[in-house]
Amino acid sequence: MQLAANGASGRRWLAELPRFIDDLRRLWSITEVGLAYEGGCVAYVAPVVLADGSRVVLKVSHQDEETACEADALAVWNGCGAVRCLASDRERGAMLLELLEPGTPLADHPGREEALDIACSLLPRLWVPAPAGHPFPLVTALAELYADTFPKQYIDAGEPFEGSLIECAVDLCGEFSTKGSANTMANRDLHLGNILAAQREPWLVIDPKPLVGEPAFDAAHLIRSLVPEKIDQADVERLVVSIAARLRLSARRIAEWVFVRSIENALWSAATRTDDLRRDVACAEAAQRSFHLL
After folding, report:
1. How do the pLDDT tens digits run along the chain, 294 residues long?
2. 232 labelled catalytic
């Protein structure tokens, strides 16, 4: 777990985490807590044993706009293509989840094309209508926020790349905010590392960051997670076309979201001075050139 995640709020949450775990042990009759899984940034996740001998997973998340509705999304899917949530505690941001075994991530699959087939077979199963009165944020509202905030973020970061990229992103987000009103469950963090081998089904999605909007939104994040470290325009174009064909979506629409989400990441990278800035910009430029985004 990254101690710097979420700044002061994250540090306060980490300080309270031992108390949360003690409370949850009593609440859910947890008799044994195993070693936490590695790799987490904003959540504590560990295998646990309940009083009846059941082996499940305890997840306690730092609560923000991305994690607040995870249990709600898992309830909507009810185990269809995704891990089951067995119990939840909103006050502490906690869930009991089914244990997925062997739990091997799809990212470790030896066959890339087969891995993409598996991921693209799961995604449409998750694209179900959002229930009435749902609590999930909207992709259209997120796009409107991007359009409003990208220019200032760009200036505050010292204008770290070509300004025409920001102009293009703002224009696209303006379109997304008015013409992307699909009432479909979406996920802003779908990648091969969040698909695990299981027994109830061969593969199941974990760790959703749910929204409601058009399917091309989360297809774009999947593609961003697949591009190589050294960005090549042809690689990006092939991935977009390949994923679009598998999902029966518009390649151009996916490319537009690849572009916007790359600019979002580039601005974050510039603000936090991470090494991903060049890669984010290169991904945006590759999508822009391949699909003639103006």
Report:
1. 454 556 787 788 889 999 999 999 999 999 999 999 987 678 999 999 999 999 999 999 998 888 899 999 999 999 999 999 999 999 999 999 999 999 999 999 999 999 999 999 999 999 999 999 999 999 999 999 999 999 999 999 999 999 999 999 999 999 999 876 789 999 989 999 999 999 999 999 999 999 999 999 989 989 998 988 889 899 999 999 999 999 999 999 999 999 999 999 999 999 988 888 999 999 999 999 999 987
2. no
Q: Which of 72, 189, 218, 280 is catalytic?
A: 189
Give bridge partners of residue 286 from the DSSP assignment: none
What the chain holds in terms of domains, given with CATH numbers, is: 7-98 (3.30.200.20), 106-290 (3.90.1200.10)
Distance CA 30, CA 35 (A): 14
What's the chain look like in SS3?
CCCCCCHHHHHHHHHHHHHHHHHHHHHCCEEEECCCCCCCCCEEEEEEEECCCCEEEEEEECCCCCCCCHHHHHHHHCCCCECCEEEEEHHHCEEEEECCCCCCEHHHCCCHHHHHHHHHHHHHHHCCECCCCCCCCEHHHHHHHHHHHHHHHHHHCCCCCCHHHHHHHHHHHHHHHHHCCCCEEEECCCCHHHEEECCCCCEEECCCCEEEECCHHHHHHHHHHHCCCCCCHHHHHHHHHHHHHHHCCCHHHHHHHHHHHHHHHHHHHHHHCCCCHHHHHHHHHHHHHHCCCC
pTM greater than 0.85: yes
d(CA 174, CA 92): 36
> How far is CA 41 from each of CA 6, 27, 62, 224, 278, rounded to the nearest angstrom?
9, 25, 9, 19, 23
Tokens read off for 264 = 């979002």
